[in-house]
Amino acid sequence: MKPTYYITTPIYYVNDVPHIGHAYTTLACDVIARFKRLDEYEVFFLTGTDEHGQKVETAAKNNGVNPKEFVDKVSENFKNLLNCMNFSNDSFIRTTEEKHIKSCQKIWDKLINNGNIYLDKYSGWYAVRDEAFFSESEIVDGKAPTGAPVEWVEEPSYFFNLSKWEQKLLQFYESNKDFISPKTRRNEIISFVKSGLKDLSISRTSFSWGVKVPNDKNHIMYVWLDALTNYLSACEYSNEQDDKVFKKFWPADIHMVGKDIIRFHAVYWPAFLMAADLPLPKKVYAHGWWTNEGNKISKSLGNVIDPFELVNKYGIDQIRYFLLREVPFGNDGDFSNSQLINRINSDLANSYGNLFQRVVSIIFKNCKEIIPLKPNKFDQEDLTLINSIKNNLDDYRNLIDEQKFDQYLKNIWIVISNANKYIDEQAPWALKKNNFERMEVVLFTLVETIRQISILLQPFVPHTAEKILDHIKIPHDQRKLKSVDFILNGNIEISLPTPLFPRI
Ligand code: ME8
After folding, report:
1. Ligand 1 neighbourhood includes 78 CB (under 6 angstroms)
2. 463: pLDDT confidence band, cut at 50, 70 and 90?
3. What is the phi/psi pair of residue 285, to 5°?
4. Quick check: CB of 269 below 6 Å from ligand 1?
5. Which of 4, 164, 199, 219 is most buried, with most CB under 10 Å away?
């Protein structure tokens, strides 16, 4: 039986259109999901939309439609982003779906039956933009610490006894060192929990766009309890008849989020799960924040980066590569058009694209359009190149497990650059006249190296890697990670390729 791997993105609020930040998180998950599939895991890759709460209700009102009509429409924009970026999610959850509503009510019942929910009254600050409660001491110049405007809320509310879970959470972080990644986030969360947790208001009565609290018509669930539960709903937590899927995939291997929502995922979520007697996810990874040419990305500044436009202008694989290569994952990054163009021209067109183009053209011209047969004997420099990926597969596995995408790509680009140097040094065009056999060994070595590189690049630049592997006629069942270990047979007829990455 294959090992399983469950990976999730945040579910995005449908108050607005998708932007580059949403595309970035889902892209990181897509790369991991694709890599794990290549490594023969059974993957469940989930994304979706967060459709309840005051923020969405207000957005619907501002658009003059009822919330259901509004969420149906905006949720489509997020679905369209999947195609646009070539994402390979296995499921798309919407929090207005029946099975999700049932899940929320099931976890609520579990929490209340376990004695972790009580009825009281909330009075304090609430920021609709963050959908979060803030204590008096957190308010800075009349605003939430995130800069969001706050309003005073006073209403009856159910509370979750978060304070009771403080020590258990700290123990859990202590015995699961990778649960919160990267390390800086872990430290931040531990000191937040150590500073003392207050019980959490988990229902609202002043508006109605949410999941109804079981047995109390006046309350709807706090949107974050509702939203976090999506990770259970999608793997059939509420399916009482059949728990196979839930047993197979829960707990999730990784919840990928932005650093803005780490507290909800690394504090509230594990506390809810412990209180409901459910197993905890293995990892929460909070990545950094993109700015646009130095400025915070925001609708009011009019500088939102539209992923649909970028892909139309530069190409899907180009954008996928740039986003994960340019900034070490976990760090904040600044989006700049000139950097994007540099990366496309230097890394993709001049290095990877050119390597493939040169090798195939030389074979086309000098070997009667046929990739030479596997030679019986290699020189040391041929083997060094051929083994540079093959001998390091576990390093690539680790880099994906540690979410070090830029390092993974840097390592591959070292091989690409070595392969380009090897062509110059071996000069196969010169060998043609005096050592035809050696020329064939050199060209074979290069195609074999391109094969391995392209297998490993499939998760990042799926269209391009597919084009190359198709071009050198690698069968689909030989494109797995373990296929890197085979060696090409050669004797394959090829045509002249068109450039993979047009220079900009
Ligand atoms: O918070 N840079 O949804 P949301 C990088 N519904 N990533 C960014 C980004 C930026 N400038 N802007 C957004 C919510 N993101 C809740 C989540 S989960 C149970 C509920 C990404 O639409 C990043 O992943 O505000 C961030 O955490 C997420 O979008 C916030 O999306």
Report:
1. no
2. very high
3. -110, 125
4. no
5. 219
Q: Is the CB of 11 under 6 A from ligand 1?
A: yes
Distance set, CA 476 to CA 136, 277, 479, 483 (Å): 59, 43, 6, 10
DSSP for 399-427, written as a single string = HHHTT-HHHHHHHHHHHHHHHHHHHHHH-
Question: Is the entire prediction scored with pTM above 0.90?
Answer: yes
Superfamily of 337-493 according to CATH: Isoleucyl-tRNA Synthetase; Domain 1 (1.10.730.10)
DSSP letter at 136 equals: G
Those residues with Cβ within 8 angstroms of residue 370's Cβ, 6 or more apart along the chain or in another chain: 363, 491, 492, 493, 494
CB atoms within 10 A of CB 17: 16
Residue bearing the CA closest to ligand 1, atom 15: 21
Nearest CA to ligand 1 atom 26: 258
Quick one: tokens of 65? 């439609």
Distance CA 12, CA 347 (A): 32
Beta carbon of 85 within 6 Å of any ligand 1 atom: no
Strand partners, 334: 291
Helix (H) and strand (E) counts for the chain?
A: 21, 17
Residue pLDDT, tens place only, 80-130: 999 999 999 999 999 999 999 999 999 999 999 999 999 999 999 999 999
- Crossing angle of helices 405-426 and 354-366, in 10° steps, is 30
The length of the chain in residues reads 504
> 160: closest CA among 125, 215, 199?
199
Q: What residue's CA is closest to ligand 1, atom 12?
A: 21
Query: Residue 284 in contact with residue 255, Cβ under 8 Å?
Result: yes
Tell how far the Cα of 483 is from the centroid of ligand 1, in angstroms.
Answer: 36
Q: Which atom of ligand 1 is nearest to the CA of 259?
A: 27
| pLDDT for residue 300 is more than 80 | no
Average pLDDT over residues 413-422: 98
How many whole angstroms separate alpha carbon 307 and alpha carbon 294?
Answer: 18
Residue 54 φ then ψ, to 5°? -70, -35
The secondary structure of residue 282, as a DSSP letter, is: S
Report pLDDT for 294.
Answer: 87
Residue 497 is predicted with a pLDDT of: 86
CB 297 near ligand 1, within 6 Å: yes
The candidate with the shortest Cα–Cα distance to 222, out of 211, 230, 214, is 211
3-state secondary structure of 257: strand
